[in-house]
Write a structure and sequence with these properties.
Blueprint: H1 3-28, H2 33-58, H3 60-63, H4 69-100, H5 103-131
Length: 133
């Protein structure tokens, strides 16, 4: 497994766990989004640092290599695919805001689409790297 694939697995899992934690806080526990956003951001940033440091520690040689042509193409295609999820979520959030005038719900729709699009990007990277584009 390449370093970029390991990174996609680690970051996808991290974002899925932290995203689920955030939405549990907001939707189930009823914590206001402004208070739930702080631990969400901290967990994502600190978790991303920990995941990347762990990967670099286990494969320092691979981590220092620049992305080759195939890996760059994989990253571009994965970003392209995930942009549809983000764009759709933003349009749905804006449409909801136009009719309901509820900015809190729009924020959650857009944040959900952002989290899902990043998870989709990491998943696309894994699939494309295994498929060898």
């Amino acid at each position: 497994m390449s370093f970029r694939e390991k990174s996609a697995w680690g970051m996808g899992a991290l974002l899925a766990l932290v995203g689920a934690f955030y939405f549990k806080l907001v939707l189930i526990d009823g914590v206001p989004p402004s208070f739930a956003a702080i631990p969400f951001v901290l967990f994502v940033v600190l978790g991303a640092i920990a995941v990347q440091l762990g990967l670099v520690a286990t494969s320092l040689k691979d981590a220092n290599q620049p992305a080759d042509e195939r890996e760059q193409l994989v990253q571009d295609r994965a970003a392209h695919y995930s942009s549809y999820i983000l764009g759709f979520g933003v349009l749905v959030g804006m449409g909801h805001f136009i009719f309901a005038q509820d900015g809190n719900v729009m924020f959650h729709i857009v944040l959900t689409s952002l989290v899902l699009s990043q998870i989709a990007e990491y998943g696309s990277q894994i699939v494309l790297l295994r498929r060898s584009v």
